[in-house]
């Protein structure tokens, strides 16, 4: 079955991307097509031009999203007259990838068991992180505190893939700890542990990591400038990108 041709069934998923997380949201929308069976295994996705127009993203961003999902074995590109991008959704392959990245079946089962609590966890994280960023900017870290943020930023930028999540957590925890509220830092540490277990179930996508690093740099700059509005906006966009990927892979 061909998924192209302007099929109205796709309209609910292929909505225009509204945030600055164009890559992450494009991945999420395409994954939804696959997971919901709107384009079944062996079916062809709409043409790149149509997908880009529907999602209102650039062809470059769309191709990067498709390539990321091809690398995960969920899509296949064929050349020639009858070519295109085809769905290769094999649940057993997804389970294998989950076992490899999560280190066992338990984390995958835990993510599934969360059900509605997944959305609650992501929302709680957003409230904590955005609030912590605003409070941290209000305090405008200087001296040792400013250097801590710079060091954490440098560590995420130079981290190997295997260490990236640990360094990323360290940067975010530093923001929470420097906001002035020990309670916020304590609650953030707890919710981040849950989020990390979920993140371990999805692959590290190079384009997402590049985007995250750009956001990290913008966040630290806003904090050191004491710009609370910019810090809030950057952090909100940053956690929204992570949430989009989680919803795509774990829905």
From TrEMBL:
Which Gene3D superfamilies does the record associate with it?
Answer: GntR ligand-binding domain-like, Winged helix-like DNA-binding domain superfamily/Winged helix DNA-binding domain
Query: Which GO molecular function, any one, fits this protein according to its record?
Result: DNA binding
PROSITE patterns named among the record's database cross-references: HTH_GNTR
Task: Identify the SUPFAM superfamilies for this entry.
Answer: GntR ligand-binding domain-like (SSF48008), Winged helix' DNA-binding domain (SSF46785)
Q: Which domain of life is it from?
A: Bacteria
Q: Which UniProt keywords apply?
A: DNA-binding, Transcription, Transcription regulation
Q: Which residues form the HTH gntR-type domain?
A: 20-90
Q: What is this protein called?
A: FadR family transcriptional regulator
| Naturally occurring in which organism (per UniProt) | Peterkaempfera bronchialis
UniProt lineage: Bacteria, Bacillati, Actinomycetota, Actinomycetes, Kitasatosporales
